[in-house]
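Query structure, 267 tokens:
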């Protein structure tokens, strides 16, 4: 079992999401028939062109507009825009993660807003049609089944069981990392300085914590079970949190499977 202490980050509101409940382990039929696709958005409150991308990320999650795909969204706020305005959700860890994608995907420089689909396709994060096309293609690729059968919440921590099956048919050629993230939905900020001064910004699934659980070395087993315990900062709105777990091949950054589970029920 792994325990992480996650430092607090300022939150700016939760869009009135009030019901607190742990959702059931079974997905609704409409979601079970879709292939989960991980969509990451590298963004910043200090970036003038980022708000439309944040709005697109919200729509991808709430509307699920791509047939056959279940979008699992993560918003990762980088820190290199912090100047006149300090993005309260930014972290060097997300900048470092974006640098890894820059290396693997051979982009000439870091930029925002950047959307990365299943670790393999990058695009300007506000390009809706390109995002839909990339998600549709990703949904047709084979995936392992990642599940969160147990998710126990107390006032200051969440305990998670992670299970993985169906790895044998994916034939990873390098070690695979199992990741877990906590993201908070519905956050919004009134920006007072910088390029977005005097704007009210909304964000989709802001990543509060992102950690590797373990590394699976070759040959990767077909079935995997892991546990994690993560502390919940009291400033986070528990009713708006979701847990995301995904498998990612270390060298290629290819996402081999992903799932999410909210600490409240949407249904």
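Result returned for the query:
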């Amino acid at each position: 079992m792994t325990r992480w202490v996650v430092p607090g980050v300022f939150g700016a509101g939760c869009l009135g999401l009030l019901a607190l409940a742990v959702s059931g382990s079974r997905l609704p039929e409409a979601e079970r028939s879709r292939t989960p696709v991980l969509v990451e958005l590298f963004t910043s409150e200090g970036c003038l062109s980022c708000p439309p991308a944040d709005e697109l990320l919200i729509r991808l999650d709430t509307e699920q507009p791509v047939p056959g795909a279940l979008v699992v969204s993560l918003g990762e706020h980088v820190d290199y825009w912090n100047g006149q305005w300090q993005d309260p959700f930014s972290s060097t860890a997300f900048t470092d993660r974006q640098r890894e994608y820059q290396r693997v995907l051979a982009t000439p420089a870091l930029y925002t807003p950047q959307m990365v689909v299943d670790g393999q396709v990058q695009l300007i994060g506000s390009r809706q049609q390109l995002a839909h096309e990339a998600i549709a293609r990703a949904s047709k690729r084979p995936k392992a089944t990642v599940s969160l059968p147990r998710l126990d919440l107390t006032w200051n921590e969440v305990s998670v069981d992670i299970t993985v099956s169906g790895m044998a048919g994916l034939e990873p050629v390098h070690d695979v990392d199992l990741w877990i993230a906590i993201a908070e939905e519905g956050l919004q900020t009134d920006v007072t300085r910088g390029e977005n001064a005097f704007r009210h910004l909304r964000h989709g699934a802001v990543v509060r914590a992102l950690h590797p659980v373990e590394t699976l070395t070759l040959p990767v087993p077909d079935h995997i079970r892991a546990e994690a315990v993560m502390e919940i900062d009291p400033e986070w709105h528990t009713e708006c949190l979701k847990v995301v777990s995904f498998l990612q091949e270390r060298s290629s950054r290819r996402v081999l499977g992903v799932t999410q589970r909210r600490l409240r029920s949407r249904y």
